[in-house]
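Example 3.2
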Amino acid sequence: MRIEIFSDVGCPWCFIGKRRFERALAQFPHRDQVEVEWKSYQLDPSLPEHDARSEVEYLTQAKGMPEGQVRQMLGHVTAQALDENLHYDFDSLVVANSWKAHRLIQRAKAVSLAAAEELEEQLFSAHFERGEDIGSEQVLAELGQAAGLTAEQVGEALSDSSWEDRVRADLQEARALGVTGVPFFVLDRKYGISGAQPTELFAQALEQAWAEHQPLQMVSPTAGPGQGPDDGPQAGLDGQVCGPEGCD
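Structure, written as tokens:
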């Protein structure tokens, strides 16, 4: 079964949603048969590569929200993150464009889905917990190598435009699916889950998607009480069918 997660590493709810989904997946009995792919999404492509504003200043100016409301919102998000053992520090957060980070994620996916998932983890933690600049190529190089990429692979991600094409392909796919916010989880291209939902909802969705993912169970006639395999009205019926070569 395939799970696609559209996410932006500059989205605080995406890290929280990652933790809640991971907990549901860890409890899922068929987790070893689930493939998880992280997809690129950008909440604010207009951000400069390096932004000197604080997160409060950025949200106040970009979203037109009163500063008090912004601080209240960030306090709520911080408390929700702490429930997932994530330690957000919005006072130290460096506002940055996530475009180059997405290029690196695409390069990591070409190595393995596991490498991309580890890079997502590294980027989220660096951005929200450690106050690192995820728009900096030096920081991205360190995080990429911490996720298992080589220095050459990181350099390729930041210099070869083909990785930009892959980011754009994800963005186009998100638009086609009607994704307007992240995190957004797509289960087997049948179900969509918007937002950092409770773990219980993810667990329920996994069970439902898995049930529909399984191949058809074949039903065949069985002998009734006191009947042998060659007795009774069902004897000799093998389920006659018609095929390209004719009918039974």
